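thought: fold this chain, then report.
action: predict
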Amino acid sequence: MATSPDLLTGPGARRLLFFVLSVGFIAGYTFDAVYAKIRQQQVVDTSGLRSVLPEPQADQNGN
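observation:
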C-alpha cells in the first residue's frame, strides 16, 4: 500500500474485498466457537501449585 497507493482501485479489488470479508467472518466465528470450548476445559493440572502457594485471603468485605 505504501509503494502502490492505487493498488485497490483496480477491477479485482471488489472481488478481493468480498473474499477477505467472508474469510474474516468465518475465521472470527470459528475462533469464538473454539475459544469458548477451550475456556471450559481444565487443561492445566494445578494440583502441584496448590500445595506450594498459600490460599488467597478474603478481605474484610468478604471478597
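thought: worth noting. The chain has a mean pLDDT of 80.
final: C-alpha cells above.
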